[in-house]
Structures are given as structure tokens and as C-alpha cells.
Amino acid sequence: MFIDECGTSTNMARMYGRAPRGERCRAAVPHGHWKTTTFVGALRLSVRLQ
Prior knowledge:
Elements: E1 2-9, E2 36-43
Antiparallel strand pairs: 1-2
């Protein structure tokens, strides 16, 4: 059995971005209300050997 875990958090926001020439790059970023999500996945390989 193989188990893998990974996670992400909303406070991992980019500080830089791209915008068309002459325009400012703007986006909403959560401040103080961060949420964390964890993912767990499992894979089982069942093989019958004869």
C-alpha cells in the first residue's frame, strides 16, 4: 500500500503578477482568515502470483 499526503494553505498567495502594459495587477488575497486543506491519497496494488 502506498500513502501520500500533501497540503495547501490560502496564505500562499503570490506577491507578483502580470498585467497588460500600463495596467496595475490587482487581485483579492485573504488577510487573517487563512484556511488549510490536507489531502491524503492511498493506492493498493493487489497482485496474485501463481
